[in-house]
Amino acid sequence: MALYVLLKPVNKNIALLFLLLNLGGVAVQCINMLNLFSAVLLLSGADYLKVFQADQLQALAMLFLDFTQKWVYGRPAILWCLAFPLGYLVFKSGYLPRILGIVLMVECFGWLMYPFQFFLFRAT
Questions:
Q1: In the predicted model, is pLDDT for residue 78 greater than 90?
Q2: Percent of the chain predicted with pLDDT > 70
Q3: 9-30, pLDDT tens digit by residue?
Q4: Between residues 21 and 82, which one has the greater pLDDT?
Q5: What pLDDT, on a 0 to 100 scale, did the predictor assign at position 107?
Q6: CB 114 within 8 A of CB 74
Q7: In the prediction, which pLDDT does 55 show?
Q8: Other C-beta atoms within 10 Å of 77: how many?
Q9: Which of 51, 57, 97, 118 has its CA at 20 to 30 Å from residue 43's CA atom?
Q10: Contact at 8 Å (CB) between 29 and 76?
Q11: N- to C-terminal Cα distance for the chain?
């Protein structure tokens, strides 16, 4: 929110786009945390989990961790591509270093490579 207020005088629409992309990425990551908590709950040793064998619980916990790593972290990278609007705003602002804006815009393409490498170089 502070960056929105700081960069709103440069271009209000792009600053709002940056804010919305940032909020979307944060929302996806917060929902993703439920998978990590599920893995911890499976290995907590609660009484209602005693009906499962230890290797079954470990396999289920690994399923949640694997889902988090392989399927969820790459998808919000499109939302985390907020570096491009932020970089553009920093570049145009005049009161922040222009090189920082260029680095942020280049970083956007690095984030875009992350989900594409999952599909192009898929390990079985």
A1: no
A2: 85
A3: 888 998 888 888 888 878 877 8
A4: 21
A5: 83
A6: yes
A7: 92
A8: 19
A9: 118
A10: yes
A11: 41
49: tokens are 């989990």
Q: Which of 31, 9, 119, 10 is nearest to 79 (CA)?
A: 31
For 15-19, the CB contacts below 8 A with 24+ separation are 15/85, 15/89, 17/85, 18/82, 18/85, 18/86, 18/89
Burial environment of residue 58 by CB neighbours within 10 A (0 to 12, 13 to 18, 19 or more): middle
Residue burial 81-104, b: 16+ Cβ < 10 Å; e: rest: bbbbbbbbbbbebeeeeeeebeeb
Distance of alpha carbon 14 from alpha carbon 8, whole angstroms: 8
- Domain residue extents for the chain: 2-120
Structure-token pair, residue 35: 């998978």
* Arithmetic mean of pLDDT, 95-104: 89
